[in-house]
Amino acid sequence: MTGPWVKLELDVAAFDASRFETYVTRCRADGIRLTTFADLGDTPEHRRALYELNKECSADIPERGEFFSFEEYVERRFEADGYDPRGIVIALDGDDWIGLAATSVQKGFVFNEMTGVRAGYRGRGISIAMKTFGMAFVREHGASTVRTFHHPANANAIAMNRRMGFVDGEG
């Protein structure tokens, strides 16, 4: 990787959800359903579907390299201390999994680990809708801060987070 990671954080109390609800409303009007991994069911089939979606969406991350094997993914995602299936938002178009926003619980904050949308669905505000929908999970945990980080060349993800109110932080 070249250059430092861009570390961002969001003050949950300052987040104006009403400003971004239009993204959620637009998704629903377009037939996109937002739900959580918990509501879908943390099943072996759903774990595989999440893996495939995460793998596809991660392919565009600059200098990402080869994605984890499924076994490594299970260990890093589902067996990690901060895992909570309620913290993974899934966007669905019919039965097709088209986007995810995965958030884990850490000591003193929540961490947005990955937000991604399949290429054919990008540019429609689905990422912002998923992250807005996922703020219910953040508030449920009483977290005051959401942290994330990005490769410096991942300009779209950085811009989207800044639009939502993320500022430079400790990450």
UniProtKB/TrEMBL annotation:
UniProt superkingdom: Bacteria
One Pfam entry name: Acetyltransf_1
Location of the N-acetyltransferase domain: 32-171
Enzyme Commission number(s): 2.3.-.-
Keyword field: Acyltransferase, Transferase
Record SUPFAM superfamilies: Acyl-CoA N-acyltransferases (Nat) (SSF55729)
Identification of the protein by name: GNAT family N-acetyltransferase
